[in-house]
Amino acid sequence: MDHGTWLAQACIFLAAAVVSVPLAKRLGLGSVLGYLLAGALIGPHVLGLLGEPEGVMHVAEFGVVIMLFLIGLEIRPSYLWQMRAAILGLGGAQVVVTTLAVAGVALACGLVWQHALAIGMIAAMSSTAIVLQSLRERGLDSSQPGRAAFSVLLFQDIAVIPMLALLPLLATQRSAAQAEAVHASLIASLPDWAQALVVLGAVGGIVVAGRYALRPVFRYIASTGLREIFTATALLLVVGVALLMQAVGLSAALGAFVAGVVLADSEFRHELESDIEPFRGLLLGLFFISVGASIDFALLAAHPLLILALVAALVLIKTGVLYLLARLFQDSHADAMLLALCLAQGGEFAFVLFAFAESARVLDAGITAPLVLAVALSMAATPLLFLVAQRLRGKPAARQRPDEAIDNHHPQVIIAGFGRFGQIVGRLLRTNGYRSSVLDHSADQIELVRRFGNQASYGDASRMDLLRAAGAETAQAIVIAIDDEERASQIVESVRKHFPHLKVLARAYDRRHLYELRKMGAHVVERETFAGAVKLGEHALRLLGMRAHQAHRAAQIFTHYDSDLIERLEPYWGDLENYRSQLGRQTADVEELMRQDGAAFHLGQAQHGWDAEPEAEASSATGGQMATSPHRP
Amino acid sequence: MTSPKHARILLLFAHPAYQRSRINHALIEAVQDIDGLSLHDLYEQYADGFIDARREQALLQEHEVIVAQHPLYWFSCPPLLRLWQDTVLTNGFAYGQGGTALAGKRWLSVVSTGGGTFDDLHCEPERFAVEELLHPFEAASDLCGMHWEAPFVVHGGHALGMEALAQHAADYRARLLDLREGLTPPLHAAHDRAAGA
User: Quick check: B86 contacting A, CB < 8 Å?
Assistant: First the structure.
């Protein structure tokens, strides 16, 4: 493709998206339908603006690969374990029952059992991309049906692995051509059982490499501090895994998913997420556009009844099966309906699997072409089904009770900077049962922290996208504990702007920095050395002979009046000359107050009033005598 | 809404484990929106035990009715309220020469016990009536020239049902509203006994 056409194509895609997506969103149809419509419009069957939709489809499929990598990143193995009942139970039941139901109908229509089974398996898939995007857009991703949908989709994503291994075994006709057909696969000449072994081996290889090789590589790259190289490494990883998977005849998306899961536990998860996220968004849009463009209106015009019957059958069977299963798993009617309708479409994996089945000679093009069209149409119908489901569910669909929206993996506090300072904050929170998410820009530090069993991610806390990935949107507070003064101020300012709901607690270098952080909008600021210095001063007083309680009160009084002084001087900060003259005056004032109050307080409350006069303070502060005289009898 | 003839109420609330106390939640929630009442949560304000005496004295001077609400711990108040007395009710302010800042104000003790009555604690009730255990507060009230109000006591906070809780809360609110309007005469006026201090 020469440069000119490439730019022209890009221009058409972008223009179509820019025009139709905001329009669709404005009309309440969601961005996915907007992309699909844009695709249908510029596709070969309407305006015919696209040169080679197949080529575009290949690029766009990479969007699905990236999406699965990102989905994998979000699924920590521990989370997977938590959701095991929903995933294996509801998800497994959905795939098995839908497969059998669709296969039954296909058998009844006169297909051979191998074809029927293959179609059943492929039809059981739903569209992860469309469903997750639509759920998120409608704020339903943390609701009960939203999480159930996620579990089912997850099981489907995993079920693709055995399906890819099973499909070749269903081939009804074997031929030499098969060798070339399977993506020019390197292993296609092997017998079926060996292919299955290689598939498992490749997946296992990714898991092992991810555990033991990828993290040191990322750590090394991170230590160079070059952000674009980190992004490049992440993309290289995804592309590399995709190529490896294709080489062994597997779906690239699966490999990416596995690589994602393997890295989900790593400290680089948030950084990877936010670095790759923009690619996902654009490529996924491209993917939806090419799905729209692939809708073969000629075939639709030729057999409108057949195609529409297929779409209706697909949607009805899937909705029915899932609704019944959800009711069995004790969902309410409304939740079950939403779940069933939102997963009623065919999935993008169907395209992959149909292509695979065709090349493996399981199904032929005469069967797959109308089915692919039906799947594409059912995907296009999803936003409409969502509207129906939400209508059925009643208005407050998006607003669940707030506690329902809180997930175990949503941190309540984000700690930016996990060195000497942030670690103490984090330990205090953790020992009191609060969940925090930690960001630090030093890969070495993170490595050290994780060795002690803490959750921590590598990343620069001044990037709002990373904070978002770390959970800033659902957290209640952020602790900014980094030691870079200027950057801390910047972070405070942008956090206040981007996440106005977050309470901001910041570590200040000194009084000057404290004022600056407050000006930027920090809610709570503490000077980093103040508490420790006062404490040490208290110890000094004790060593000089003061009784422990007296020394403690002295330290408290000092702290009280020092923060008083800070308040008094705040209005003058920024005007250096005025500040200096005020500093002297106000300090003298406050110290005078402190001296007066010392008489009333710091000899122990028991003394004051009952017998001692304020003047007695100076002499009684000298030693460890029993300064606390008893109350009046 | 605030009319000058209403008395202003300072509610000194001292509870180290408020997060666990159903009865105190019910009581506080029932009265905190009373017009002219200032809720002053001592354990929230002075978590480290450092009490700002100047501020406390200013608060006392701004109110005519002082309500001290606290659970009964070891037959007395929690330590922060006791510390508050030492720190705030100083010679020359609350008593002694020139110490008339509180004279004529009313003092109401509001006390809750977690268990049942003292029967449950194997004490003889007639020996340890709550009113008797509150004698130190009564004496302090006298010393400061304040009017001592009949204490408001809730027993068995742990075991109370929702209805009983609501009833106590409503009674409490009614009691404070009466106090605000000056409708109930104090148990005994300050001048009866303050002379002895």
Answer: yes
